[in-house]
Amino acid sequence: MKKNKKLLISYSLVGLFIASCSSVQVTEEAVYEDSIQSIEVSSNRSSLEVPSSSRAVVANATVYFEFDKYNLSTRSIQALKSISDLMSENPLIEITIAGHADERGTREYNLALGQRRAESVADYLVLKGISRSRLTIKSYGEEMPAVSGSNERSWGRNRRAEIN
Amino acid sequence: MKKIFIFFLLPNLIFAELLLEITKGSENPYRVAIIPFQSDVSSVNNIVKVIKDDLLRSGEFYILDESMLLSIPSSIEEIKASEWKLLNIDFIVLGKISDEDNSSVKATYEIYDVSRKTKIRSSTVYGIPGRLRQLSHYVSDGIYESITGMRGVSTTKILYVNEIIDNDNLNYILYVADADGANEQELLRSNEPIISPSWSPDSKKVAYVSFETGMAKVFIQEIASGKREMVIENDHQISSPAWSPDGKFLSLTLFQDGNAEIYILNLATKNLTRLTKHYSIDTESSWSPKGTKILFTSGRSGSPQLYEIDLTKFNTKPSRLTFEGNYNAKGSYLSNNDGIIFVHRSTNQFQIALKYFDENFIRPLTESKLDESPSVSPNGNVIIYAITDNKSGMIAGVTLSGATFVLPATNGKVREPAWSGFLR
């Protein structure tokens, strides 16, 4: 496609002429198209996250949420209590909280919703005396479903915050 | 902490091709006869096919089948208006394709108005051999604008994201393609999600959200050079980019306040101005055609609804625009500022809906289950959106006159379509 670029430009100089004689529209134009460059990026995920195996104690949990909600359920609070206990006893543990949403609704709103879910988890832990500096919060919205499928069961498992 | 590798792509990687299917036309189309083009170019049939598909996809045309032609006039002078009135034809298109030399193909076409018994257009387009689809799109846009009085969008482009599995790895590819889905080319390939692609008003750059650093970040990429930059570098998530109509500002959603809030970034000075301040989610901003208002999704009423902020009035409270249903999100203005389109939830369906400002009800435009990401054509006449159907995802389109089409992908899931501005 690149080899055509020069030619395209020379044509574009011809431009677009519109002359109006009585009611007939007369035009002359040349096809013009910019070139397009492709690039590729790749993230090395292991370099982004502390490998959990290098920690003496592992804090892992997943908590689930209702549709379009980010408040913690009683069951979630129980799971988070063991995380906060673990973190209180092991001051070196730092965690990442990643919020997620199900596929329904818009992607950007779901990204924000996932963030709120992760924040809810963080707020609870901070309330329990864990320093916010030990928490990394992020959201994947609906982009990283835990399970596929467009049904209530899958959606319920995808509306979550993962603690690692 | 960030390790980003950038290298130029090798050809022949797996790619998705979109195949156009026209599903339904409008009820009151312009009736057009396209006389077989005179040509010494072997691909003339393909050229005419692309022109016909472009016109049909707009939903505003009925094209007389070639077998129904009563005569084949070789010039405007040979047209007998009475004959065409019999067939109820409104306009006749005559064309000719010729090889100018090795580097140029010439298309000439004329349009005859049957009721006024007169020629209304006479045009010439010079194209490149090997790029004949583009030549065809120029011709169809010329025909479209002479007959409807509106600018055509066949020469415009679309962006979309394709999620594919390539050698067992999940790949996300941002594509740019012609408005009919053909001629797709990769802009960015990543192993982390890409969402929310958005065109600069001059259609030379795109902004998008990439998760390549491990969290959502907004990038701007120049289409011609591949040159790209992260617009704000900090430790927080940033998403939902939208260009102001003058191209000088980018509205964004920043998460640095512990919550999604909308900011406006001055691209020259990098100054940030905070636009929303509320403990609920504020995101999905988009600009009014004149750049004086910003439409956004907010959860401040307890469920996502659309709000508008007037940028010309200092410190005004956002006004709520949607009241029907418990989910109205991802809005954008129609290009003539008559109304907005958005994602609306009705009972258990997410569909694309339209609300005119002078009406107090909304008009659902689509009817599948999980429709999202509506994007309006630059002439304001067509809306493309993403549909999800269990495992597949594809782009569908609907015109304001009610015509529909789909662009199914041959590989993987296609979503997040975004329509460019006029390019011709």
Automatic annotation (TrEMBL), chain A:
<dbReference type="GO" id="GO:0009279">
    <property type="term" value="C:cell outer membrane"/>
</dbReference>
<dbReference type="GO" id="GO:0051301">
    <property type="term" value="P:cell division"/>
</dbReference>
<keyword id="KW-0449">Lipoprotein</keyword>
<dbReference type="InterPro" id="IPR006664">
    <property type="entry name" value="OMP_bac"/>
</dbReference>
<feature type="signal peptide">
    <location>
        <begin position="1"/>
        <end position="26"/>
    </location>
</feature>
<dbReference type="InterPro" id="IPR050330">
    <property type="entry name" value="Bact_OuterMem_StrucFunc"/>
</dbReference>
<dbReference type="Pfam" id="PF00691">
    <property type="entry name" value="OmpA"/>
</dbReference>
<dbReference type="InterPro" id="IPR036737">
    <property type="entry name" value="OmpA-like_sf"/>
</dbReference>
<dbReference type="InterPro" id="IPR006665">
    <property type="entry name" value="OmpA-like"/>
</dbReference>
<keyword id="KW-0472">Membrane</keyword>
<keyword id="KW-0132">Cell division</keyword>
<keyword id="KW-0732">Signal</keyword>
<protein>
    <submittedName>
        <fullName>Peptidoglycan-associated lipoprotein Pal</fullName>
    </submittedName>
</protein>
<feature type="domain" description="OmpA-like">
    <location>
        <begin position="52"/>
        <end position="164"/>
    </location>
</feature>
<keyword id="KW-0131">Cell cycle</keyword>
<keyword id="KW-0998">Cell outer membrane</keyword>
<dbReference type="InterPro" id="IPR014169">
    <property type="entry name" value="Pal_lipo_C"/>
</dbReference>
<dbReference type="InterPro" id="IPR006690">
    <property type="entry name" value="OMPA-like_CS"/>
</dbReference>
<feature type="region of interest" description="Disordered">
    <location>
        <begin position="145"/>
        <end position="164"/>
    </location>
</feature>
